[in-house]
Amino acid sequence: MRLHFSVRLFLLLVLGPAPALAQDAPSPFKLTLGRFQSSAEGQPSSFSTDVNLRHSSDLGNVWYGHYAASAEQLTQDRLGWDRSFSLGALRVLPSAQVATGGAWNGSVSVETGTRWYAGAGLGRTNLRPTVNLNFDPNDAWSLSGGYRWTEGAALGLVYVRDNRENPDQQHLHLVWRTPLAEAHRLTVDLLHKRGLVEGEPISRTGLSVAYDWPRWFVRLSYDPKVNFTTQDMWRLAGGTRF
């Protein structure tokens, strides 16, 4: 399993920059704490945690993450960066990441359009084994498109398919984001995945729901056959901006 571009970059690709919450401007830091539960038929459940600290500035988003799985006695540290650039009618979103164990990856996505939009992306790793905390195929290409409303709501599709070692692995996301009263925000990500798990074809549906307050946020996700393994995963994440 390998790391790919960050979840933040994925949301930027699908939905564009999030509409500002009431206290976004004076809060350059974002701290996220995640707890994951994996289970498979005939096997005991296992748990892991992840801590991620991000800083946003004119240079882009720089972040550090630490992952730990006690049952596997596995830990991993990673450092990443991403930013959006405007080039005429195009928006270009590059990212880069390094992780302990010598793993690194990069990605670039290009998008055009304002209300209606379309985009494409490509990700590459150095094939070093690491934990995939993006949960989409890693060495992959992607296509995206959708519509953004003036009040900040957005509906987008993104298709991600491995184009290197496992071309059968593919994800289709339908993502809806909408602002709510009192500077709150709701994001729903419906996932359909297809591919091979231990040589057998699978077709599964997952779901992620995130809720943002001006300062705090929480996200609950269910991902069947996570990273195209026999494991089903529940993920609970939350944190604060400061």
Walk me through the structure:
The protein is mainly β and 242 residues long. It has one domain: Beta Barrel (Porin). 4% of the residues lie in helices and 62% in strands. Strands 1-2-3-4-6-7-8-9-10-11-12-13-14-15 form a 14-stranded antiparallel beta barrel. A hairpin with a 2-residue loop joins β12 and β13. The relative contact order is 0.18. The N terminus is likely disordered.
Mean pLDDT: 91
Read across the widest sheet, the strand sequence of neighbours is 1-2-3-4-6-7-8-9-10-11-12-13-14-15
Low-confidence stretches: 1-7
Q: What global shape is seen? A: globular
Helix content: under 10%
Number of domains: 1
Distance between the termini: 32 Å
Number of strand segments? 15
Report on the biggest sheet: 14 strands, antiparallel, barrel
Query: How much is the radius of gyration in Å?
Result: 17 Å
Provide keyphrases for this structure.
242 residues, Porin, 4% helix, globular, disordered N terminus
What does the secondary structure layout of this molecule look like, with pairings?
Elements: H1 7-15, E1 29-40, E2 43-57, E3 60-69, E4 74-82, E5 85-87, E6 90-99, E7 103-112, E8 116-125, E9 140-148, E10 154-162, E11 170-179, E12 185-197, E13 200-212, E14 216-223, E15 232-241
Antiparallel strand pairs: 1-2, 1-15, 2-3, 3-4, 4-6, 5-6, 6-7, 7-8, 8-9, 9-10, 10-11, 11-12, 12-13, 13-14, 14-15
Short précis:
The chain has 242 residues and is mainly beta. It is 4% helix and 62% strand.
